[in-house]
Structure formats: C-alpha cells, structure tokens
Design goal:
heterodimer, A: about 300 residues, alpha/beta, two-stranded parallel ribbon, 10 helices, about 20% strand, disordered N terminus, B: about 300 residues, mainly alpha, MetI-like fold, two-stranded antiparallel sheet, 2 strands, about 0% strand
C-alpha cells in the first residue's frame, strides 16, 4: 500500500515536473502571439527590435528612455548582426530591424516575396575608429596606408615610420556590418571595381571587446571598431582620405562636417510604413530628444547638434 | 490497485523504449538534415574552389583546407598536452593518492569538466594569450598554442575521469600478483595496471579528443580565427581558424538556402563524419580489447 502510494507520488512528481517544463514553453508561445494580435487595441504595446551589434547599446538606450516616457510600451532589443535583423524582419519575427548597412537587393527581393515592403529610416551616424596600442608611436595614417596594411602589402610598422615590429591585423568577423563597411570604404578605398581582400592572416575576432582587449595589450596590433565602442585603453589614429587631405581624429564634429573619412549611416527598417505606437517610437528617435542619446553613446547624431 | 500499477508500468516501459529508439532516430534525422542542407554544395561550388586555400565567404571563396587543417592542428596540439597530463592525473588518483586525497580530487576533476567553455575562453583571452605572447615573443598570443592549451584543459577532465574509472576497475589481484613478483610500484602501474585498463583509457582519450575537436566557443575566442595554412614550426604558433568556429561565427548572418549556407552545412557534414570515425575507431578498439580480456579471464 505504502509502496504504491510512494510510487504514484513519484509518478506525480515526474508528471508535475514535465508540466513545469512544458507549460511555460507553451505559455510563452501563447503569450507572445496574444500580444501580437491584441497589441492594436490593448493598453500595453510591445515592440521587438533585432539587428546590428554595433547598434545594440544605442537601441537599448533608446528603448529604456522611451519606456520611461511611455510606460505602456514594452521594447525588447536583441543583437545578432545587421543580416540577422533584416532576416527577422523578413520572417516577420521583429517589428524593427537595426542595420549598420543599407539593405541588400537580395534581401529586398526576399522581403517582397514575403509580402513585406521594408522602409528605411536613417537614425544615427557612426564613425569607424582605427586603433593601435598606446605604446605605438604612430599617430596618423592615410586611407591608402591602412588599406595596404590590411591587404598585406605592409607587414612591419617600420615601413610606415614606426618601430621594428610585425603588424598584427585585427578585424571583426565577416558577418559584421562593420567588417563589410571597412572592406568597401577602407580596403577598396570606396572603388566599386576594386577587388582587394583582407590579408588571409587577418585575425577575425567575434566581438568588439575581443578587439579592444587585444589592442590594449599587444603593441603589434592594429584594429578598427565603431567609435562608440572605443575605450581609453587604446589609441585613436588620425585618418586622411588621401595625401592632399588633412589628418582628422574621429569625433562628432569631424563626422558631421564630413572631414573624417570613415563614417556611415545607421538604419532602422520596418515592414511597411509604421503606424500607431511604432510610428511614434521612430518619430521620437528622430527627434532632438532621441538624438541626444545618440551623442551620449559616442555615436553621431543626424541632426546638427 | 494491482491493475493500476500494471498500467503505469506499461506506460513507463513504453516511454523508456521510445526514448531509447529516439536516440537512433535523432542521429539519423540530424544526419539527413545535414545532408539535405549541405550536399547541394557539390553542385553549386566548384571542387577547385572547395579545395582552395582561401576562405572568404562573402566574396565566394570557399576553400575548406585552412579550416580542416586548423581544426586538426589545434586538436593534435590539445591531445599532445592533454593525454599525458590526463592519464598522469588518473594514475595518481587511482594508484598513488591516499584515499582522502582521492575523495577530494575526483569530484574536483569532475567539477572542472563542467566549467562552461566560454569562461575558459575569457580566461584565455584576458590571461593566457597576453602571457603566452610575452613568454614566447610571438606577434600575437591568439594562436594555435593558446587554443591547444585551452582545449587541453577542457579535455583533461574527460580523459582523467574516465581513465580513472578504468584503472579503478582493474582487479586488486593483478596488482597484488605483480607486487608479489617483486616489481616496484611504478613497474606495476606501467606494465600491469595501465595495460589491463587499456580499453577504458583508449575510450577516455578518444572521448577527450572528440570533445576537443567539437569544441567551439573557447577556440573561437582564442585562436584568432585567421583562415591561413601555416607551415613549418609556425604551425603551432600562428593564428588559425577551426571548422566549428567558422560555423558558429557565420551561421547567424547567412541567408537561408544561399551557397554560403550550404557550404557551412557541408562543414557540418565533415565534422560529423570525422567525429563518427573517431567514435567508431574508439569502440572497435574497445570491443577487440574486451574480447581478448574475456578470453584471458575464461
């Protein structure tokens, strides 16, 4: 008798624990689909925001501030890369895709095939900073010199007036929008028919933190990253577009007046023209109030400050 | 009530049978999924491209050679380091350590085996890589050597723990007989206990190597991920890119169904096949050994 009770109790425990595992999963599914369908008429409205890792901190800051202003809005922000964001938009699993590059023509086609018309908003500007170790005496480089370093034509710092050290090239992974942007703007000097590639021995690091950590420790390295991610442990390089231009350090002023040559626009994409709360959110991001946050995070606001 | 119990028993038995078979079904499903997604590569990418030396997928360079060589060198490096150390730890715990030390060491080794590899990766990036760069005067510490050290550290607990079980299972009488013949303790370990536990130790080594080969996060963080084919002595001290790190780093961005996507699955198939060969080798060795020992005992 006792034994049976104990075994049935055990079975109950098993059943209960299975329920505990399964129901939250089901629950989640139901909840999110409910939110989606009710969102137009209910009080709380949730906005999903997926995409560019460069923009994650910025998107989070916007989301936090906006949720303070509008307590009935919930905004979730996820990174993963520009392509991930746009793919999510095409799969209808996000409301806003963040991208640090313009949407590709194949992606527009894929979106159209799903009945989605991606609308582009230029929400901020970003400058890519070229960085070296603080002990490296090099202060300034032209775009062409940086291109020659990354393509493998220059392999020692002494070739450009530095110490006799091998150059270790650091880059973001090929899935990062920053990588593609750097390839097109710096390695290929913005020329469409230029087929220069990164030297195969370029280290491809999966995170900004990895690049900062290695550059701040290793005097042989050169790296690049979004201006918003650069910390005081590394040294910024002043860059000139060509021999005739002046060398400029990346800053809000030099990006806004177009003198710093490695700067780009950051975008948000929505599926079709945004309406209701989504439209309000994007309008707010583009307002002076939203752009203050851009400046605070080391990015460059699109409105003149 | 007896009826009730019988009913529960039937369900439980069924569940156990289903979960048993599901393992087989899942393996086949995974392999089918990999094949379906990866095999179109052969049609869409030229063989000369696949066998090329350049991996730069966003410009359609799909040379797999640097990735395969990368995975193999870093695994060999890890094995060179982890196999002797792992077996030495097992021998110490099973044969030499007093029982109180054994009771502490064995659980510690098993806890070590449970440390998430990301954490070891962080240690690698912040501590090992800078230290190794200064120590060996390398251009960068993000290299095969650092990767091999970390992978070794990841596979040592597997090797040590399973080898220790194998050594522990060797009958007491073997050691007593050997010692009675006048051998030293070391001779007993080296010529009697270790050979007797050989099949278990081999399994441990194979599992450890399999773990190292399939490890992703830690190698992605510390090997620099440069898809180069190093030569000569530089082989163990230059940056490298492994197959697993490539899949992990690139799968997130790739468009579903594109050529790049198919090639990534092709790499998955290769990984699957290599792990399969390692496992089959390990189990055939073990079966052969077992038959021999059964013969001796009977």
């Amino acid at each position: 008798m006792f034994v049976t009770i104990i075994t049935t109790m055990r079975n109950f425990k098993v059943i209960i624990s299975i329920c505990l595992i399964i129901f939250p999963l089901l629950g989640c599914g139901f909840e999110s689909s409910d939110n989606r369908s009710q969102s137009t008429e209910s009080e709380t409205y949730s906005i999903d925001n997926v995409g560019s890792d460069t923009m994650v901190n910025l998107a989070l800051a916007w989301a936090e501030e906006y949720q303070n202003l509008q307590p009935n809005i919930r905004i979730s922000v996820t990174g993963g890369g520009s392509g991930t964001g746009i793919t999510s938009l095409i799969n209808k699993s996000t409301d806003i895709a963040n991208a640090s590059r313009v949407i590709k023509s194949e992606e527009i086609e894929a979106a159209k095939a799903q009945g989605i018309d991606p609308i582009q908003f230029n929400v901020a500007r970003d400058a890519i900073a070229v960085i070296v170790n603080p002990n490296n005496p090099i202060d300034q480089l032209t775009l062409e010199q940086i291109s020659d370093i990354y393509s493998g034509k220059i392999n020692n710092w002494k070739e450009i007036g530095g110490e006799d050290r091998p150059i270790v090239r650091l880059s973001r992974e090929t899935n990062s929008g920053t990588h593609v942007y750097f390839l097109e703007t710096v390695l290929r000097l913005g020329q469409v028919d230029n087929k220069t590639l990164f030297s195969p021995d370029t280290l491809l690091l999966p995170s900004s933190e990895g690049i900062i950590a290695e550059v701040s420790d290793n005097p042989n390295t050169i790296g690049y990253d979004g201006l918003g991610y650069v910390t005081p442990e590394v040294k910024l390089i002043a860059v000139a577009k060509d021999n005739k231009s002046t060398f400029e350090y990346p800053s809000i002023e030099t990006v806004n007046n177009n003198t710093y040559p490695i700067a780009r626009d950051l975008y948000m994409y929505t599926a079709g023209q945004p309406v209701g709360a989504l439209k309000d959110y994007i309008d707010w991001i583009l307002s002076a109030e939203g752009q203050v946050i851009v400046a605070n995070l080391g990015f460059v606001p699109i409105l003149p400050p | 009530m007896g009826n009730n119990k019988g009913w529960l028993e039937v369900i439980t038995t069924r569940l156990i049978i289903i979960s048993g078979y599901s393992a087989i079904i899942f393996v086949f499903l995974i392999f089918y999924f990999l094949l379906e997604a990866g095999l179109p590569t052969i049609r869409n990418v030229q063989l000369t491209n696949l066998l090329g030396q350049r991996w730069y997928p966003i410009e359609e360079y799909f040379g797999l050679l640097p990735l395969i060589i990368g995975s193999i060198t870093v695994t060999i490096g890890a094995a060179l380091f982890a196999v002797p150390v792992g077996i030495a730890i097992a021998i110490f715990i099973a044969e030499i350590a007093p029982s109180w030390a054994r009771n502490i060491l064995k659980p510690i080794i098993e806890v070590l085996g449970g440390i998430p590899s990301v954490i070891l990766g962080f240690l690698g990036i912040l501590v090992f890589a800078p230290y190794i760069r200064r120590l060996l005067d390398l251009p960068t510490g993000l290299s095969v050597f650092t990767g091999a050290l970390l992978l070794g550290a990841i596979s040592i607990p597997t090797i040590a723990s399973i080898s220790e079980d194998a050594l522990d299972a060797v009958p007491r009488s073997y050691r007593d007989a050997s010692l009675a013949l006048g051998t030293t303790e070391w001779q007993t370990i080296w010529y009697v206990t270790l050979p007797a536990a050989r099949s278990g130790v081999l399994t441990a080594i194979m599992l450890g190597i399999g773990r190292a080969f399939g490890e992703t996060m830690a190698v992605m963080m510390v090997t620099g991920n440069a898809p180069v084919i190093p030569s000569g002595l530089a082989l163990f001290f230059s940056p490298i890119r492994t197959m697993t790190a490539t899949i992990a780093a690139e799968m997130g961005e790739v468009a579903t169904g594109s050529t790049h996507y198919q090639v990534l699955f092709m790499i998955g198939i290769l990984l699957f096949l290599i792990e399969l060969v390692v496992n089959i080798t390990a189990s055939t060795v073990v079966i052969k050994q077992r038959k021999r020992s059964e013969r001796i005992l009977s």
